[in-house]
Specification:
The strands form 2 sheets. Strands 1, 2, 3, 4 and 9 form a 5-stranded antiparallel sheet that branches. The protein is built from 1 helix and 9 strands; from the N terminus they run E-E-E-H-E-E-E-E-E-E. Helix content is 5%, strand content 42%.
Length: 149
């Protein structure tokens, strides 16, 4: 009917399970045997290079996907090593290898690594923990379909 807004475009949702491994075969995470990961194709919720592979897979299909750092979490950015005054970091976190919580302007929180502790400052690596790494994803699509929106 004239004047009515168009119906929302259908969304394609994909449920999958995965394991991710580093270059040396070290397991880094995943959800196999747990709650499936569900994402909307094109919504930007999954690494774009991984999404391209998953989006072309059929229900029940398994695939091994290798992503270089550039296609995963990017190279290590030297500018992401930030210096903070010693007294701004909790005393129990002032050790190399410890994790500290950082809050983004949007309120989300992430864990970051303490990489150096000096007399008056602490250096924190604010890169993604998997930055600079080639990753291998073992993926299985559980269900792929269209949701009416």
């Amino acid at each position: 009917m004239p004047g009515e807004p168009p119906a929302p475009a259908p969304r394609r949702l994909v449920a999958f399970e995965f394991q991710v491994f580093g270059e040396e075969g070290d397991e880094l995470g995943g959800n196999v045997g747990g709650k499936p990961r569900i994402f909307e194709v094109g919504a930007g919720d999954v690494l774009p290079a991984l999404e391209r592979h998953i989006a072309e897979m059929k229900d029940g299909e398994k695939r091994s996907v290798v992503l270089r750092a550039e296609d995963a979490y990017g190279p290590v950015d030297p500018d992401a090593f930030r210096r903070f005054p010693l007294d701004s970091i909790p005393e129990e976190a002032r050790q190399v290898g410890r994790k500290v919580v950082g809050r983004a302007p949007d309120g989300t929180e992430d864990l970051f690594d303490v990489v150096d502790v000096g007399d008056d400052e602490v250096v924190i690596d604010m890169n993604h923990p998997l930055a600079g790494r080639t990753l291998r994803f073992e993926v299985k699509v559980l269900r792929s379909g269209v949701d009416g929106g």
